[in-house]
Records
---
Amino acid sequence: MKKFTQRSTTLLLAAGMGLAAATAWSAETLQDVMKRRGLSQQDLLAASKTYVPTGKRDDFIAFSSGGQSGQVIVYGIPSMRILKYIGVFTPEPWQGYGFDEESKAVLAQGRIDGKDITWGDTHHPGMSETNGEADGQFLFINDKANPRVAVLDLRDFETKQIVVNPIYKSEHGGTFVTPNTEYVFEAAQYASPLENKKFYPLEEFNEKYRGGMTYWKFDRKEGRIDPKKSFSVELPPYSQDLSDAGKGPSDGWSFTNSFCSERYVGGIEKGRPPYEAGCSAKDTDYLHVINWKKAAELVAAGKAKKINGHDVLMMETSIKEGILFLIPEPKSPHGVDVTPDGTKLVVAGKLDTHVSVYSFEKIMAQIKAGKFESKDPYGIPVLSMKDTLHTQVSLGLGPLHTQFDSKTCVAYTSLYVDSQVAKWDYCEGKVLDKISVHYNIGHLMTMEGDTAKPAGRYLVALNKLSIDRFNPVGPLHPQNHQLIDISNDKMQLIYDMPLPLGEPHYVVAIDAKKLKPAVRYKLGTNSRTDQPHPAAVRAGEEHTDKKGNKVEVFGSLIRSHITPETIEVDVGDEVTIHLTNLERAQDETHGFTVSTYNVHASVEPGKTVTVKFKADKEGVYPYYCTEFCSALHLEMQGYLLVKPKGWKASKTTLAAGTYTEAEYKANVKKVADTQVIIDSVVAYITSVNYKDFPDVVAMVDDAFDQLGKTKGLKEKHEAFAAKKDWENATLWAEQIWQYQVKTADLGLRAKTYLEQNGAKKVK
Ligand code: K7E
Ligand code: CUA
């Protein structure tokens, strides 16, 4: 230990005097590298389009579904560097998600029929919008397997809420938002009886099984979905699929595809043709067109029926009130995407080579004129496909999803079977360009490409197979997100990114400038409720309460100690530990765990987190900080002592250390030397315009916070020295130095930042 601290002083001295920086330049030229690595001009061009130099940031931030991992993956574009995994439907240990009480409460909202469901099949992230444009405030994502929707707040990139769909058993067409995020859509997928736990045999499929469309009311002020103000529209058992919200002229309407409108129920084991045959036998399926604004009014007027306590507008009512229509669409469609100006909708039929562009104006004209070509078996008016189409364009095999460019009339459609992206003009109905991807593309995504104002520039192809793209890692391959430059007439493939967490069906991206995430919480925040945590403490307020067999610790974390450092309980006690991270410094997260009790917390600056467990095993259990937070991180430790029944202590004093006057004096000198470094760093920082750099101002504030903690300690060690108590004198002097190290660490970080970012001398 001694050795380490001396070395640290030397390092600090060296860094303080600017001796540490020596940069070696490679003598290699670009030509040399091209030759050595076998790169072409095209490769270099691609590399220069995606390379983000150290210290620079990406232009766009993407939120990808984590597929079967039940998480969200955040990455930067164009670098494709992964920035974060966010636990949503699944526990995520690093962030303590599912291992601390606050996040367990969020996961518990997603329980179904009283049971935990700790995985999710996430498909479609959706960003909150204001006037049809991505606003960077909230993210929504659905769980197809267990019909649920989650709300993430982009101030801290945390999951805040999970709502369970009260009437479905599966869903898919979610999450799509209305232009001002009034509602978040969730469409059913595999039809089932709407009443919970109701059994009907498949012979009653047409009568008793139903699909539907749910409109979750989003309360932006609260940042939460309000289930009481949410409702659903009952739909036929047609396997509703992807959806989109109208915008501009079509605002107030929603559009939902369907497949298997044949209502086939399979039975391969009974010798019946399988689903795949029975669900694609007819040439067309149905596009559902719903006036959600009017539906909301009807629900408010009491015209809905309560099913499982949830408002459902029954088909009969929707037909009578004229808010629900069907339009035939080509065989087994997948995506339906409303154009940025809201005048058209693009439907891609998986088993057709065409994309069909419908005109909203024509749809409205037909509805107004009451011109219906037929009714479906449930009495829903069916509009003529021919009379509502704007155009059809043959793009290739297996068109799935469509996204839009910032250039007017330009769209991109994924071609699953052809393994291509087609660039085409949806106004004129012509193909502009095609590019191959690797392989079998599902969704594709352009920057803010499903908003009213797409940002263009890049497109990401989300491929189902990666076969030969990456180093083999066994039979389960990574997914392949390919980045395509769309700023020119010809598309250029510029990057392959393997994603190894699940099948990310869809991803959305936003201009990074629109995101304004916080760097710390207000001291004592429960990040899952955004409310002050009742068990938060400030420095000096830490304490432990014991009532009967309940032990409650109100502790704190700051570099580099946990308060308290000993927790004594009796076997069988219920232990609750609340911890507040007192740091203000950016990125000074502390983690917390207790050996073998399966708890973990990530406590970011300002956050208060609770872990809870029953101390049902007598013994000694170290607890410690799990994030390498400082030079003395390993010493950020403590003991949980679980005493056996009837335990009586035989010794009452701790073993004394052996310290000499010489060691005390050495520590005092170390403190004085370090102060010289701190003073020189402070002198440098205050000699330049550091106040023009908000990040530096925060670091300087944090540095002085740490230094402030030395107050009164000099008097303390001197008083012990006067009494020749060399242990206490030495250790309190050491503690001053510990705070100084943190101060100097921050100060030097600030100094380096200023030097690298062109700080200027001030008078
Ligand atoms: Cu096409 Cu769930 Cu959007 Cu997969 S879905 S591809
Ligand atoms: Cu705190 Cu490591």
---
Amino acid sequence: MDAPTAACACLFEAIVLSHDDAMFSITPQGLVSSWNPAAARLFGVPQAQALGQPLQRLLPQYCGTLAGDAPHGGGLSAQSFVRDPDGRLLPVLVTRSSIRDPALGALGWLLTVHPLQRTLVAGSGSATRAHQMMNVYESLVECSDDAIITKTLNGVVTSWNPGAQRVFGYSAAEMIGESITKLIPEERLHEEEMILQRISMGQRVEHFETVRLHKDGGRVDVSVTISPLRDAGGRVVGASKIARDIGERIHAAQAIWRQAHHDALTGLPNRKAFGDHLQRAIDAAEQAAAQLAVLYVDLDHFKAVNDSLGHAAGDELLVAVAQRMRSALRASDLLARLGGDEFTVLLPGLEQPADALTVAAKLHRALQPPFEHAEHPIHASASIGIAHYPRDGRDGMLLLRHADLAMYEAKRNGRNRSVGYEAAMDQRARGRLLLAGDLRRALHQGELFLLYQPVVRNGDRAPVKFEALVRWRHPRLGIVGPDRFIPLAEESGLILDLGDWVFRRAAAQARRWREQCAEPPQVSFNVSPLQLSSDVDSTAQWPAHLQAIGLPPGCMVVEVTETVILDDSPRIAARLSELRRQGLQVAVDDFGTGQSNLASLSRIDVDYLKIDQSLIRKLPADERKLAICEAVVAMAHRLGIQVIAEGIETDEEQRKVQDIDCDFAQGYLYAQPLSEADATRWLLDATARWRAEPPAR
Ligand code: C2E
Ligand code: MG
Ligand code: MG
């Protein structure tokens, strides 16, 4: 070594030894070849321990920061953090230069680690404040749930906090010195280019929501904010990045969205989603001057399925119905479940109103084949109401309401059919609403009363029974018939109280007749299916009540409609059987109006069958109907059931029913429904007449 060179080396050594910045060099193999006292202070590793050691082993956590990539032969300057011997994080500026010998080539690297705190202290003029600030800053980085990362402009990670490990799974040792692209899914690599480009231009990227890779291979939803890091001269030398794991927030938001817009059982859009879609479809139709239709679909007798087979079977049916309907519709049609057994369909881009009927017919057909169920197949059908835009309403809510009203009409017209909305339905609905309000009051204010229609024995016309028929003396509308208000009572649940009142009133009358007549008549009363299927069993009290008033239960007959036995509900069957076991009798009303099925009579024991007046009306002329009635009577008799012909108005009808061997007859020919007083008079007269001149029996 010549003299100037030696002097230079001494000077260089003095500088290095006395310098406040940690300075050390490493060989191309990564072994520490020099280590100044400041490095020993900063890292807490004495020179003797450091020399000859692989930097990797000495300072694993900083290895990437200190020895990471740099353009070969070029320098590197980056902000980073190191931990001092007390465990505190210090922000530092790391500068790295390559040591090259013109003859020998690359000899290694010289690294200078300049604590930035000093710069801060110098700048602020208050050492304590600056120190406190640093501590606050450190603990923020340490404790943050967010990933706080710094990287070079080439995307090499230079610091990595515990939050980053929580979010991405990698430890600091695994990531520092690595390329940040390790975290980026391939299809999103372009994002990193965009980010680095903006950072190099000194811009920030704020709250950028994206997806990154976790160490375990999974994906992490993150929101990242990236800011440029500058050196003392203001040059952008890297980037700091705060990444927040928003997976939970996204999942929660998705779950809330799904919950808010989907029906959990069928997976179909729910009422809210349907409403939103409908409004958008209406807006689009308005712009395009197009039409659309809304179908309101309600399953028939769904409650019976729930009651008889249980809620699990009910749910299963709803899911299967939803699937069948969905596959009967086009992809562009929207099927939603509003709740319970109510579905809606939106048909956008309708060519002509009649097309909606075609779609409704498809839905009816789709439901026709029985649904598989563990014990036996379930038959389902639906009532469908249809409303058109713009004809029946320009607003989504109104269209839905009108489709609902039309569905109600479909139910009233016998179910399992489709009905289009008409303006008159609105008025009828308003009338029903008013009437339903009045009805609640009517029961308590004594506006209801019973009429009694006699039933005579065929052949000798003996006055053997009365049927109690309810009426409503409405203060404004006058006498209102049961056909108008019983359905309202059923809808509002008032039928339970009303039905109970009818039973007690009719029983009291039967009891009076028992005192007044030697051969007291039976009294029958009509019972709504809901009284027999409701959760509250008001019928259970009836036998005890009869006993309390001293009336033999055989004096009372429960009339249930034919649909009740067709419903196949074990609860209804059980309640009817119990009433019979207690001594009351049971009559099947309106026989011949539904899907008459004598086989169903074998499931529920009944005492009487009442042939509906619609069948009686056709008797005289229609030989086929006559043959059917004759067969029904014969079969009923074989089952030990007596037959009552309803609605006899003419002598001819009376003769025919006698010919086919009906046991009893009821109708205007004998008497209209009568008030209590008139019925009593009629009964006493008829009994006296019958006694005086009994016809040939
Ligand atoms: P229903 O039980 O089949 O009653 C027979 C209906 O036919 C009665 O009508 C009666 O007035 C009428 N009728 C009787 N003979 C003749 C006739 O010769 N010709 C014609 N055209 N009609 C005749 P109403 O009283 O209007 O009752 C209608 C329906 O209302 C009843 O049919 C029954 O299903 C229901 N209903 C009546 N009272 C009650 C009640 O207290 N509770 C329940 N749940 N329903 C009732
Ligand atoms: Mg009846
Ligand atoms: Mg009837």
